[in-house]
Amino acid sequence: MTPVRILVPAGALGLGWDADALEAGLARGPDLIAIDGGSTDSGPSYLGRGVSKYARAQIAGEWGTLIDAAHRAGCPLVIGTAGTCGAGAAVDWMLEITRDHLARAGRQAKIALLYSDQDAAGLAAAWDRVTPLPGAPEVGPEMLADCTNIVALAGAEQVQAALATGADIVICGRATDTAILAALPLARGCHAGAAWHGAKVGECGALCCTHPDTGVIELLFDATGFTVTPMAEASRATPRTVAAHLLYENADPVVLHEPGGRLDTSAATYGPQGRAVRVEGSEWIPGPYTVKLEAARMAGHGVMSLVLIRDPRYVAGIDAWCASLEARARARIAARMPGQGYDLELRRIGRDATLGAAEPGRAVPDEIGVMAQIVADTPEAAREVAKLVNPLLLHHPLTPEEPMPTFAFPFSPPECDLGPQYAFVLHHVLALDDPMAAFRLEVVDG
């Protein structure tokens, strides 16, 4: 077999890369340029709305550079999870950007589009083939109709089908981060364990190296393993940086589950080769073919209020203050808006807004921002609830007998509309007899 050389410009389209490093990678003659386009990291809104989190101008600029780079290298260009969420609307958005660039460049290209969207009624009818993963919410097939977008995560087989069309550019809907990197080496007979392990290591570009912001790495796959090499001169891969990437976004640092099986890295060895690292010994264990499902539904409309608290007594007693304020607010809402459904959360910025009860720190800050987040079924109801909370955020005392305090709103009005709010619905897998059964592949001219 012939080794397969894959160039990864960055961890995601929109993050940027070192231009000299990209040129260095192109000079080595890649067989494929592949980059991830998104994830669920930024929450359910993007899947719910079917849009990208990144600015179109940024995506268009970077994607145009990669289209030109792949053209010069004479190799295909692949993006996975297009437009952050991988919904069909995001695939079409990327197609539009692609065609705009090709038109300006005066070139044409063959473009394969891999759609991951799932029909709610069809999925409900096949619910006996759906299995919840650990920690999945309680979901029944009747809830699928409320979802604005449902996607399945493509694996290597679906990406291989897209590449087999001979496309110059492949735009994938939702896919596993590893699939776009593992597909070609697997198709050309490279070591299966190495293909999946290398894909996991390289999914975020130079994050598996020093100087991760340079972005660009090369993955070289062959019959026994893979080699990861950073393309920026200042960057280097080490056994530690490469092995550590199995901890990234993975519940198990040894085993990685993918459609059609699992990767076991327990016997992997990591050998330094100058600025590169050679990895061998990983094992791919075939299993039932399942694809992960993701979905989002609109949970309501959101409003946020923010108050800044600096009084040392209130900062020290912020837990008690928030608890009594919330109780008083809920009583006021029940009295003034009986029957109104809503969610109210107080997040203490500077104390434990990120980790909540899991926060290990015990330091007392100089000030705390208390952010009230309200979600209700209509924008009007959410704003009304927020306005009922407003005077409590400004004047609620720590104890009943003390004078009424006054805190600081950083802007006026303190209520900010957050728009439609979404929630993830599915954390399940769908069993497939045919890997392409849940996906749609189209080939168009650009």
UniProtKB/TrEMBL annotation:
Pfam families recorded: AtuA
Domain Acyclic terpene utilisation N-terminal: residue ranges: 68-183, 236-397
Protein name (record): Acyclic terpene utilization AtuA family protein
